[in-house]
């Protein structure tokens, strides 16, 4: 398994455009966290720079990880895909055991101690991409057959999705599930299959909503946040109060009002709201365009690879980033219901940022083999 | 595989375009609206209440002003120690600590205190300010200062706890008097601290418009003085008075008793402040109404005051019903001018009969009776007239001398004004104009409003002459003032209750005008059930109006004239009355004895057996005549 182009040293190095986009996004993120986290940093830790200092540290660690994984031959991920998946499942089970898993914001999704804690679901998102890229690249010829081609991947996706929903963490589950289906779609699964899955998903969604009432509240809040301004509509309203007054140019960097305790935790999930409040529509365009260019470049790289595993791997990781950023931006602008997904590269958070950069490193490593 | 990836790229392009459009929509299209809502969230606005417009009299004298009276506001999120703050504030305000604590811990952006925390005196406000409590604020506010207290109360009315007009002019013109609240806007973070970078806003309140009334404070003062005196002398159930300019309909003064203090209206019976008697009270007018009959008869050429004569035997029969004159033995042979002077009932029945019920009632309606005058005060009465169908000869005959119809004082004032001003009925009003307190620009509310012409100039002149002679030579002589040509008519009406008349309970009234050659003012005064006197309009009400005229006419720049009708000397000792023989009369007959003496009944029988003093003795009008019943 260790032979093949994936292990050969590249003739033309990593893709500089993708790297540039990653660096711009990370830099913008540090800039954003510095302002958005200022008030809460001062209030909770007596240090306005608390969040940005730590975010800079995470970025440093992440960039080191990125350069390391950019050098690591990408076939490594194919080789250890099954092991990674098994480990991810074990962690997902472990996190559900009381005493091991920790509950934060109503979800039992954290494991570990203090600064070393992380979310197994984050790891599962990536492990599933490695696994699907590996298995789907092997089954190119039988992908149109249900039992021989699709059955095993589907069971795996279903199990991972199920475990994450037990925490429950709808946001991560949605990103992971969406990514998995983008991979199945690109790998060539028949269209009628997606139609069937679509129908099943809708009925499943109905069941999920029926089983946990807070979800329907989130959905009604999304349709009319002002119906319950202090409850389910609170976050959307506070977010819109940041975005709306921003206008074309914003209040100016550092001049956000909503970060003054109105918008809860403005440096994480809703960082884009503070950013657009301060920099206006022009700042929003900057971020949206950077993300779209990143997606374009990711798919561009994927399409220029000869190895089906490499193609699916890059496409899967890019798809995951694009889905997650789309969901986050959609939540902040009130386009989709609040789900609790961070904005890659930009939201404050150690595991989020280092994982994203690690993932970028894998794409960069793969990009060495572009035609 | 590549084709499908390309489609994913296209799809994500579409998705991110939607995101861009959505963001643009929120920021560029919805931005202003969201900013407004957000500012409500960031802003803690401490209201600055507007001052109500001043109410001033026709010469600019302030009748209702304002007193600075700040109100306490609480911003709960700014209070670190609500327990201590409540304790400290409670001590100063004299308010319950638990109540304040409750307000200070409420989940609300700002709370306005009520009762003890509302409308503080300047001293209290200073005390509160000196406490320098965090989260406790004083907002601009004011309360009405009713300079005139009980006087003018029914015209001005009063305001409630939120400075909203509740009665009188305050209620009728509330909207423009109120003004618009302003605020001091502070931008704070979600924890209530001032937000850096945002400037606090002061929206100045817009004070209410100043309202000028037609009331003349000096004339009003004369009227109030006379009513106070009447109140003291006669202890009546009620008293009411109106002074109006007959040539415009402007009310110069209006008052009634019992009155109330507008700043303490809660302490009074609601009937007292809800009933503005001069416009609300509906009762039989009595003889003052004869002016209407006289006007109709003159206008229709049914009578010549000097050439036509009439014999009054003391009663008149209409369709088999015997209608008595107030003077039992009758007035005998008189000219019709003397009929007016003597207020002779059969004489007026004769005029009513000459007119016929149709014509008489059409004049009554033309003079404005049976409908509201439309004065700009709440609670005006309509009065009660016979319907055209039910009005037969008997009804016309009684109406001719003021019985069987019910009218309001303001209707009588408006009608008599029309009778003496040259024949035009004006709509009465009390609000003259608005003045913008900032720009000083005036805005007229009412101009003299002619309702209709009722009688001719010539008829009006004859009525003035007749009324002047009533004061000079007739029943209204107690209103005579040397040098001022006062004309008028007395009225004594029994009060109707539950379909019958009350005994020894009259509303005595006088309506006067002066000067008789060119009336500048019409004054009406009615005293309801005066005690310790004979209940005669000529005895009780006429002198009151006379005294008012004496002091009011100089205020209207009316100078004394020498060509007035001389006061008749034969009436100069009217104070002495020959005591009639009452022995042998029944109790009911006794009541019909409308002689100008105070009959005191003793014993429980049905027939008079003795009297003191004896018949034939001359006694002073109004003195006691004791009779014993058996």
UniProtKB/TrEMBL annotation, chain A:
Annotated membrane topology: Multi-pass membrane protein
UniProt keyword terms in alphabetical order: Cell membrane, Cell shape, Membrane, Transmembrane, Transmembrane helix
InterPro entries reported in the protein's UniProt record: Cell_cycle_FtsW-rel_CS, FtsW, FtsW/RodA
A GO molecular function held by the record: lipid-linked peptidoglycan transporter activity
Pfam family, one: FTSW_RODA_SPOVE
GO CC terms of this entry: cell division site; plasma membrane
Membrane-spanning ranges: 17-36, 56-76, 83-103, 109-133, 145-164, 170-187, 194-216, 280-300, 312-339, 345-364
Protein name per Swiss-Prot or TrEMBL: Spore cortex peptidoglycan biosynthesis regulator SpoVE
From TrEMBL, chain B:
NCBIfam families attached to this UniProt entry: spoVD_pbp
Enzyme class: hydrolase
EC nos: 3.4.16.4
Protein's recorded name: serine-type D-Ala-D-Ala carboxypeptidase
Recorded metabolic or biological pathway in which this protein acts: Cell wall biogenesis; peptidoglycan biosynthesis
Entry keyword set: Membrane
Keyword rRNA processing set for record: no
GO cellular component terms, semicolon-separated: plasma membrane
Domain PASTA: 573-630
Family per record: Belongs to the transpeptidase family.
